Amino acid sequence: MAVQINPSILSADFARLADEAKAVEGADWLHVDVMDNHFVPNLTLGVPVVESLARATDTPLDCHLMIEAPDRWAPQYVEAGAGSVTFHVEAATAPVRLAREIRAKGARASMALRPATPIEPYEDLLPELDMLLIMTVEPGFGGQAFLDIMLPKIRRTRELISKHGLELWLQVDGGVSAATIERCAEAGADVFVAGSAVYGAEDPAEAVRGLRAQAEGAMKSAAWACGH
């Protein structure tokens, strides 16, 4: 499985989003945090900004919806140009139906879990998804410290993915940096959202390359990745 690095524009300069997207053109995806000030206590951006960003960059957009009523709004982000749309299971009314609708519209369907939400009740939903996001901080704000207590949850999720023989990406988001990315990769993650660690660096593109190298190195020795 290939390592993917997704810089989060939550840590970018919102007045220069097109330039900030170009600054990380070596990234796999551009992670776009959509917050509604209801599901999480912060307000960021919406469909019009995603439409503009999709026109301004060739890097595909990975939209993470931290919003209420994703069943209603998520399909609009596919129409706006997102290549992957993540909804929170805690907010979704019908997660299977929503995942199928996102896929039917042409995007990858992803489901996110807050730190306190266990993975086990959703084992049967995994085949309906293209990616699962394990939040390693409480969603709502960038720059938070990584929660080490999420590492066992990442391992359990990877075990479930392997158990069912799924080609499901496992993303982590929150506090991912040079100091934490290797532990995440060893635990089972293969897609890494990094905000401050990329856009807070002097050279964001070099930061992406450095994080990728670290994750690839850790994955080579990870028990879960042997045989992939």
From TrEMBL:
It is an enzyme of class 5 (isomerase). Its cofactor is Zn(2+); Fe(2+); Co(2+); a divalent metal cation. InterPro entries: Aldolase_TIM (IPR013785), Ribul_P_3_epim (IPR026019), Ribul_P_3_epim-like (IPR000056), RibuloseP-bd_barrel (IPR011060). It comes from Streptomyces fuscus. Transmembrane segments: none annotated. This is Ribulose-phosphate 3-epimerase. Substrate binds at S8, H64, G140, F141, G142, G143, D173, G174, G175, G195, S196. Catalyzes the reversible epimerization of D-ribulose 5-phosphate to D-xylulose 5-phosphate. Binds 1 divalent metal cation per subunit. Belongs to the ribulose-phosphate 3-epimerase family. A divalent metal cation binds at H31, D33, H64, D173. HAMAP family: RPE. The active site is at D33, D173. Pathway: Carbohydrate degradation. It catalyses: D-ribulose 5-phosphate = D-xylulose 5-phosphate. Keywords: Carbohydrate metabolism, Isomerase, Metal-binding. The lineage of its organism: Bacteria, Bacillati, Actinomycetota, Actinomycetes, Kitasatosporales. Its EC number is 5.1.3.1. One of its GO terms (molecular function) is D-ribulose-phosphate 3-epimerase activity. It comes from the Bacteria.
